[in-house]
Amino acid sequence: MKGIVYRDADGALWKDLLSLQARVREYVAVLGLELLIDEAEGYAFLRARPPEEGVPPLPHLVPRRALSFPVSLLAALLRKKLAEFDAGGADTRLILSRDEILELIRVFLPAGTNEARLVDQVDAHINKMVDLGFVRRLKVPGGDSAFEVRRILKAFVDAQWLNELDERLSAYCAGLDAAEAAE
Questions:
Q1: What is the pTM (predicted TM-score) of this model?
Q2: Domain tally for the chain?
Q3: In a designed cystine with 149, which of 24, 69, 94, 176 is the match (CB 3.0 to 4.6 A)?
């Protein structure tokens, strides 16, 4: 259970997890964790339980990772794209090319004269999303890059997360406006 367990990636582990989920939940609860399983989407993962009143907090066993602004922005944009894709209902897998992802995020990144540098930066952000398990790199004939947006993104980038990101962006914009007014 280190990381995310996907039904399509490890069918035997998935079946064991489903059949033993009551015991797994009981076991990880002692460690201050909770098991989250989404059978419809085909993934499972552990996360820290919220702290309880009057109980001293346990150490974090699941690492928390701070995301940079571009990676957070990319997560939000891919989550929006996944919601639009689901509304269309045509297929179950959202697959995007590197160029499509580049076009999604290009609008929000500072304009520059060096296109190759921008592409390299976006590639680094995509690689971070791959490392986090939100995006999976696909092998495509011809050498082009294609990525599958994993459904686990819906569990991590929810309405609350998007609201917090919006608040941070508003505070950032207010700070920029105040700095410009001071000049």
A1: 0.74
A2: 2
A3: 94
